[in-house]
Amino acid sequence: MQSPKISPIGLYDLLARVLPGAALILALFWAREQPIDKFVNSVGIPDSIGTYLLLLGASFIVGILLSSIAGAIFEIFLQAISKIHSPLVAYTANDYWRRMDIVGRREAGPGEVLAKIAAEVTMCEGLIVGTTLVLVVSSRPIPLEASAWTLGILMLIWVVRIVALIHRIDSYERALAPSSSPES
After folding, report:
1. Pair 150, 46: CB distance under 8 Å
2. 144, 123, 118: which is closest to 59 by C-alpha?
3. What is the pLDDT of residues 146-169, one digit of tens each?
4. Which residues contact 45 (CB under 8 A, 6 or more apart)?
5. If phi over 0 gives left and psi between -120 and 50 gives alpha, with beta otherwise, what is residue 44?
6. Cα angle at 154 between 81 and 150, to 5 degrees?
7. Is the dihedral of CA 64, 68, 69, 75 positive or negative?
8. Are 60 and 16 in contact (CB under 8 A)?
9. Greatest CA span in the chain, whole angstroms?
10. Rounded Cα–Cα distance for residues 91 and 79 (Å)
């Protein structure tokens, strides 16, 4: 009997949602000065694998919400910028997902690489929106410099990942394009 294979694309998608979701849940408990173990005990879940499964499930659901909100925010932002400078339309999610689908239909390997990088972009977007939310609702004093550095570093990572994604899509499109030079 053959063991089931886990799709790399599914794994990337799961991680892109679970990590920002878990980070947001834990950060909100910290920001509101609420111990998470007190919450877990009040729900009546004993310290066991069930606690971790609950956190995993909640992290995925929160991550889905975060990625939806972040995706909309970043798409609106990039659409507005691309109206000012049209070459930036390649950085909008609508455009890069369309191009990724075309590459993925032609070659599975490049499609998986692009899915991994796209998951990193999604994860960064979720972390940026989640961090902003924590900064807004925190009852703890958080120094402005720390907030600015945190959001600045996350934005820098997002820019690097989205530029890498577009560069990879461009490279794969050139490599997979039919040759226009006549055979000699």
Report:
1. no
2. 123
3. 888 888 999 999 999 999 999 999
4. 51, 54
5. left
6. 125
7. positive
8. no
9. 77
10. 9
- pLDDT, tens digit (0-9, with 9 covering 90-100), for 22-74: 999 988 888 877 777 676 666 666 666 777 788 889 999 999 999 999 999 99
Chain centroid offset of residue 51 CA: 25
C-alpha closest to that of 163 among 101, 94, 117: 117
Return the residue matching tokens 């692009």. 114
Q: For residues 92 and 111, give the distance between their C-alpha atoms in angstroms, rounded to a whole number.
A: 18
Is residue 61 packed enough to be buried (19+ CB in 10 Å), middle (13-18) or exposed (0-12)?
middle
